[in-house]
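User: What would this chain look like folded?
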Amino acid sequence: MVIALFYTKSIVWSSLGVSVLFLLGLAIANRLWVRSTLVYAILGLGLWYTILGSGIHATVAGVIVAMFIPARGRYDTDTFLKNVSKNLHAFDCESDSCGYSILLNRTHLNKVKYLDNCAKSYVLTTQPGQAQRQRLSKFCILSSMIK
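Assistant: Here's the prediction, encoded as structure tokens.
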């Protein structure tokens, strides 16, 4: 970082000022628990472009963006387990009485829908880096099979 700043011939201060706005946008997005990869991609590209235009080496933007991308999910595992275990008691049945009751028993069906929503919300609120890695893993597997 020191080399990028002090070995730059000239700094365009107006462009660097605009990059501070993108930096504030990243900080606000992180503070508001925004988990959309698109938000971080747009703000990161804007920061990269303005830092590049300021005369500072653009890799500095990558380091700065990486510091603002959330590293933990919004929905922690303990909360997920607490919500799920609280609703599993609806399936306590006498021996051999539950059988195929999920489709016949309205309470069981509602609890299954609730548990499904809990699982989906847990997956959707993971950190953006992990979600992107999961999406890209299918492409990487496919491309390695083609070679």
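The mean pLDDT is 77. If you want, I can go into more detail on any region.
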